[in-house]
Amino acid sequence: MVGCAETRRAALLLALVLAAPGCFTGHLLDAARRREHPIALREAWIDGDRLVLAWDAEITTDLGEPLGRAARAGAIPLARLDGPLAADAVPLERRDAAAPVAPGAARLAVDPSEAGAVACARATGEPVAVVSGGDGIAIRRDGAAAVLVLRTGGRCLGPVPLAGLAACTTAAWAWPLAVPALLLDAAVVPPLLLFAPAVITVGD
Amino acid sequence: MAGIAVATALGCAAARPPVPLGFAFERDTFAFANETVWEYHVDDATGATRWTERDPAPPFALRCGNMARAARQFRLHAGFAPDAPRADPAAYAALVREVLARDPRARTPSPDPVVIPGYPDLRTLSAAHAGGLQEALGGSWRSYLQRGNWRMILPFPDAHQRATAARLVAAVAAGELPIVHVLRYPQLTINHLLLVYAATPHAAGIHFLAYDPNDADRPLEIAWNAGSGQFEYPRTIYFGGGPVKLYEVYDGWLR
Questions:
Q1: How many angstroms away from the CA of A1 is the closest CA of chain B?
Q2: pLDDT-based confidence at A12, cuts 50/70/90?
Q3: Which of B37, B38, B227 lies closest to A88 in CB terms?
Q4: Residue of B nearest to A193 (CA)
Q5: Complex ipTM above 0.95?
Q6: Which range marks the domain in which residue A6 is found?
Q7: B12 domain-assigned
Q8: Which of A21, A143, A199 sits opposite B225 (nearest CB)?
């Protein structure tokens, strides 16, 4: 009887291994991942020593399937804008999109432009946030080119790659499921890796 | 005489440490494409893709891995002597087999490349000897059973993808030709191998150029979005475009 039960357990494990799409915990977290891509800059302000931006973001799954849109806002210290920022190093402090700035913050004109360098070279006047490289003030999904420079007081600050406004979160429903997924992985992944040379997937 | 000149030149090259090679799409890729088993119908508006089986089945398909690997092997292990007299098909078949038997995981050029006479590059050789080359590239099992496939069952966190983007830039700058597995597993909307040969960083990320075995006419452009930490695959005849995961294969003992 014991041998029979062991055989059944082994058969169940083998079936799980053969049917498993891989690491359950990883796929669970992938499925729960939510990405926000900036798609249009709406407003900009100077609020004390911060540049504050408000933008529309598209929310998608990890694989880019759209889930909706949301208004977002964030602030960047002006002191950090004395040179170009990398897209993965924008020092963004998230703010409430409904009330992103204190009363009295100076609203900036947002000027879609052809080229940030040209925009910086133009005559200075009132502070202006110049968005360049995008289609108008829309931001390309691949984040290829859209940058923002802030022209103020005879200086040109930035550029800030607007792709740096992207965000990634994990939906809350995933966390309670992570424990059973980890337990399942503990049983399935080791034999799956053992059979790794035979991981066959059809593609083109 | 030309052969002696080529041999002398190669001998001189052999005396020095291997140097990184450039890669030119018009020169270093196959004149024929890997055909797709499926006929893809990509919706222009949404990018949604559905597919139907080709009838009749294409004779040369499911070889993306074979072709990406072979393109690297030719670049690293073959030398072309266009002024040398042309050989017969059997001789070319033997030379091609010799190239494909060399280490596909090598990073630097061979000090003793296989010299292929009568053609200036892989593009012209593969145009003239398409059938022989396709036979030498081997069966589709080489793509299916690529040893690095095990990696696809595990997660690809953003940190991994960022490290991959950085590693690809460094590899290309060093003259290497990284081969990447592109996937959205467990979705099977794309499951493909490419050879990356150029990288251009810009304000928002990196612009990669790759040899796509499915397209003999033009390179493929992949965007790395540093803000979101994702690779973005363009719309092609076989994929609607969008974020994908990438990892390197033919790289080290386990992949």
A1: 35
A2: low
A3: B227
A4: B150
A5: no
A6: 2-30+175-198
A7: yes
A8: A143
Q: What is the dihedral of CA B120, B122, B127, B133, to 10 degrees?
A: 130
Q: Which residues of chain B carry a pLDDT beneath 50?
A: 1-19
For A137-151, what is the mean pLDDT? Answer: 57
Which pLDDT score is estimated for B95? 96
CA nearest A95: which of A145, A44, A52?
A52
Full domain range(s) for residue B182: 146-249
Q: CB distance B228–A168 less than 8 Å?
A: yes
3-state secondary structure (DSSP) of residue A147: strand
Closest in A35, A84, A147 to B228, CB measured: A35
- Reduced to 3 states (helix: H, G, I; strand: E, B; else coil), residue B80 is strand
Tell me phi and psi for residue A148, to 5 degrees.
Answer: -125, 135
Instruction: Please tell me the total count of domains within chain B.
Output: 2
**pLDDT of A42 above 80:** yes
Would you place residue A127 in the very low, low, confident or very high pLDDT band (cuts 50, 70, 90)? low
Note which residues in 92-131 of chain A have CB less than 8 A from chain B: none
Q: What is the pLDDT of residue B88?
A: 94
Work out the minimum CA distance from A102 to partner chain B, whole angstroms: 27
| Residue keyed to tokens 């030309």 | B2
**B140 touching A, CB under 8 A?**
no
Q: Examine residue A194 and state whether it is found in any structural domain, yes or no.
A: yes
Residue B61 gets which letter from DSSP? Answer: B
Residues B88, B31 within the same domain: yes
Q: Does A199 touch chain B (CB under 8 A)?
A: yes
